[in-house]
Amino acid sequence: MRNRFFSVSCALVFFATAALSQPAQQPTQQPASGPEVMRPGDGDPIRQLNLTPEQREQIRAIREHNQNERAGTAQRLREANRALEQALNAENPDEAVVEQRLKDVAEAQASQNRLRVLTEIRIRRVLTAEQRVLLRSLQQQAQENRRQRMRPDTEERMQRREERLRRVEERRNGVNQLQRRRDNQNRIP
Length: 189
What we know:
Blueprint: H1 2-21, H2 45-49, H3 53-88, H4 95-126, H5 129-186
Helix pairs in contact: 1-3, 1-4, 1-5, 3-4
């Protein structure tokens, strides 16, 4: 559940970032309607949302407002991860120090997630009800596409794992058979 929420949230932030990196439409231009409207699966997800220039500006302002805090939380997370790595790589790692470094990493991640979610909420408030429905649909499609891309890898990994387990079992059986033969040979009739 948490991974799904994280994936959907990342997709929204990705969509919003992509929207802001596109050149703004002319102020007189209205959202597309009619046959030229893109449907889910037709390409650029931001264009599919048909953001108005006002919406683009509001989203840009939201992102700019959080930019310094985002940079700070990202830096804090990098530093916490480095400190954890150093604690783990010590000659004789102190368990208490490692636990504290783990807490620092968790706090930095929580802070980063909190900021990401709050930004997403603010961005969603800018969207119309129809755009939010479309966004959910696009996010579900993106998630399904990721799953589809992962399935062959997952199936392949499972097959490799089963093959390794089979070989381990064969080795065990082979070792057991050899051990039994030795035991039988060492018995005095």
